[in-house]
Amino acid sequence: MKRLAIITARGGSKRIPRKNIKDFNGKPIIAYSIEAALKSGAFDEVMVSTDDEEIAEISRSFGAKVPFLRSEKTANDFATTTDVILEVIDEYKKRGEEFDIVSCIYPTAPFITSDRLKLAVDTLASSDADTLIPVVRFSYPPQRAMEIRDDRLVFIYPENLSKRSQDLTAHYHDAGQFYVMRTEAFLKNKNVMVGNILPLELSELEVQDIDNEVDWKLAELKYNLIHS
Question: Which of 32, 61, 149, 227 matches a 20 to 30 Å C-alpha distance to 68?
């Protein structure tokens, strides 16, 4: 069963310039994803999909392969993760290589570990599921959500006001780190979030969206706390 890791690292980044290779605690942030994927031993190939020569050079220096650069179609602001994965699968097929399992790994996910990646791939491979997605529980119950209407707070779900938080069903969201998919199912569904999906729950300490400079600093603080 052949397995491919695709690390998606576009050159353009509006909110944090050069985000995918920005220094994170002493090395380019993409290095954490590359090193975790390589160390896991879960993949036959670890590649970086990028349109940027500098990202490609740095990725190769940390051991990843960059057999081709992205097309203009998948390098623009409107290209989706699905578009990128489909292009990579197709390009490898043209080169005579096909994979049974594909993992899409984000380049700004320094909390990924080799053990977690191996567990995720092995769990999917031994199941009948199409996909495995790491998730994290919402810290505050969404059932208690409010919105502002005409300058006043209004509960969206007033029927839950008298319920204890521990009695409300836990809700989860995508941890934004990686996905593991059976290639055949992905090509059929054309969407990571469709099909028979296994969850892999992570703690809040291991998850941090990095969309601005404050997020970046929080991620570094969490990372240092975990590794202190």
Answer: 32
